[in-house]
Amino acid sequence: MERLTSPPRLMIVSDLDDTMVDHHNDPENLSLLRFSSLWEEAFRHDSLLVFSTGRTLPMYKKLRKERPMLTPDVIITSVGTEIAYGKSMVTDDSWVEIMNHKWDRGIVEEETSKFPELTLQRDCDQRPNKVSFFIDKSKAQQVTKELYQRLEKRGLEIKIIFSGGKALDVLPKGGGKGQALAYLLNKLKAEGRLPVNTLVCGDSGNDTELFTIPNVYGVMVRNSQEELLEWYAENAKDNAKIIHASERCVGGILEAIGHFELGPNLSPRDVSDLFECKEDNVNPGHEVVMFFLFYERWRRGEVENCDAYIASLKASCHPAAVFVHPSGAEKSLIDTIDELGKYHGDKKDKKFRVWTDQVLATETTHGTWMVKLDKWEQTGNERKCCTTTVRFISKENEGLVWENVQQTWSEESEMKNDSNWII
Ligand code: GLC
Ligand code: MG
Questions:
Q1: 79 CB less than 6 Å from ligand 1?
Q2: Are strands 399-409 and 167-172 parallel, antiparallel or unpaired?
Q3: How many CB atoms lie within 10 A of CB 193?
Q4: Residue nearest to atom 4 of ligand 1 (CA)
Q5: Whose atoms come closest to the Cα of 204: which ligand?
Q6: Whether residue 166 is found in the same domain as residue 261
Q7: What CATH number is attached to the domain comprising 308?
Q8: Same domain, yes or no, for 277 and 394?
Q9: How many angstroms is it from 54 CA to the middle of ligand 2?
């Protein structure tokens, strides 16, 4: 978050399962990829991405390995009971203290064990400040009521949340996705970085609280659960800042960005001619996102095998531009592009995808830009990632000229050598 010196233009606070990630309808993750390229191209540099999930941190990391997910600026896990910042996920210790107020996990376990209606979830879904169960929908209301009374009598201040028609979480009263968001907004405000706009996105009961935070826009995705839609019908249907999207999952988030006019919502993935859409303003981040999209389409054989494309790419390279391959080998960037020319369609039908994450551009001296990003490449189930740095010079009337590209294997990469890695 520190990289932003002024208030973020947009803060998206999104649930993951069945909101960001479609578990039922999009095996190729196309909607997620559409969102990701839009975020990196148009929002990453001046906005904040927050994930708020019911998953524990280890289960979030697992999902991150399975799907082409971006790195959020803030990750709120375990139904708003844990907050961490940045790529290295630094825990918010003040939040931990708040979560321990009038909370005792032992007492919660003891009291809940008296309810045969409650079945404990797996160990990997339990956390110090989150005790999670399954329950039959028809029993949820009665058990919730009794449990509140019992735990109150034992001196605890807790909160019970019913989600997805079957999950019941017991949390500290100060926890939950809504409280965590309120805490984050307060923190940003105190730092003079209150977002200009905030959009919350969710699909189920544990997301309800997100929609109760004042002054935020909200989108319930099309595939929202009954308990969230019922809450909306009873409590918020006159709130024009909340919509029930007509698109599923992350498609609904794109829809909401458009509906509330929170910024551009045309994903670069929905642009057919990537070379046409040069911007007037110098935007090195855009240049890189577009290049790697072209790279994906070229290798998938989705663009015409036409020399003019390669020639145009070469024309935007400085003649002496150098590419440092992740293996350490140095090559001419123009030769590298020539080589790419030979790979047209080599990944056809191979479930090949490329995406960029954490694209951040800085102007080092006037007219010289450094863009840093993670470039991911996936073929089938195998994925690799290189931390990539591109140096551009911006010349009047010539646009951006690629001067240098340097790559190293990212720590997160499952493979750290590959002779077929082109760029
Ligand atoms: C996630 C968590 C689960 C929790 C549910 C509802 O699925 O893994 O433990 O009960 O969200 O909040
Ligand atoms: Mg969900």
A1: yes
A2: unpaired
A3: 17
A4: 54
A5: 2
A6: no
A7: 3.10.450.50
A8: yes
A9: 7
Tokens representing 264 are 């551009």
Task: Count, in order, helices (H) and strands (E) of the chain.
Answer: 11, 18
Residue-number span of the structural domain to which 130 is assigned: 102-172
* Index of the ligand 1 atom closest to the CA of residue 126: 9
Q: How many independent structural domains does the chain possess? A: 3
| Nearest bound ligand to the CA of residue 162 | 1
- The answer to whether residues 168 and 194 belong to one domain is no
* Ligand 1 atom nearest residue 79's Cα: 12
State which of 268, 302, 323 marks the end of a domain.
268
CATH at residue 148? 3.90.1070.10
Cα 254 to Cα 18, 36, 232, 241, 358, distances in angstroms: 15, 11, 21, 15, 19
296/381 same-domain check: yes
Residue 82, phi then psi, degrees to nearest 5: -135, 135
Q: What is the pLDDT along the chain (423 residues), one digit of tens a residue?
A: 778 889 999 999 999 999 999 999 999 999 999 999 999 999 999 999 999 999 999 999 999 999 999 999 999 999 999 999 999 999 999 999 999 999 999 999 999 999 999 999 999 999 999 999 999 999 999 999 999 999 999 999 999 999 999 999 999 999 999 999 999 999 999 999 999 999 999 999 999 999 999 999 999 999 999 999 999 999 999 999 999 999 999 999 999 999 999 999 999 999 988 877 555 667 899 999 999 999 999 999 999 999 999 999 999 999 999 999 999 999 999 999 999 999 999 999 999 999 999 999 999 998 999 999 999 999 999 999 999 999 999 987 778 999 999 999 999 998 888 878 999
State the CB neighbour count (10 A cutoff) for residue 9.
17
Q: Mutation test of ligand 1: which of 163, 208, 209 has the most ligand atoms closer than 8 Å to its C-beta?
A: 163
| Vertex 14: Cα angle to 8 and 20 (nearest 5) | 125
Confidence (pTM):
0.97
Q: Which of 132, 161, 206, 207 to mutate to test the pocket of ligand 1 (most atoms within 8 A of CB)?
A: 132
Place of tokens 């006037």: 366
Boundary (domain end) residue, out of 248, 268, 288:
268
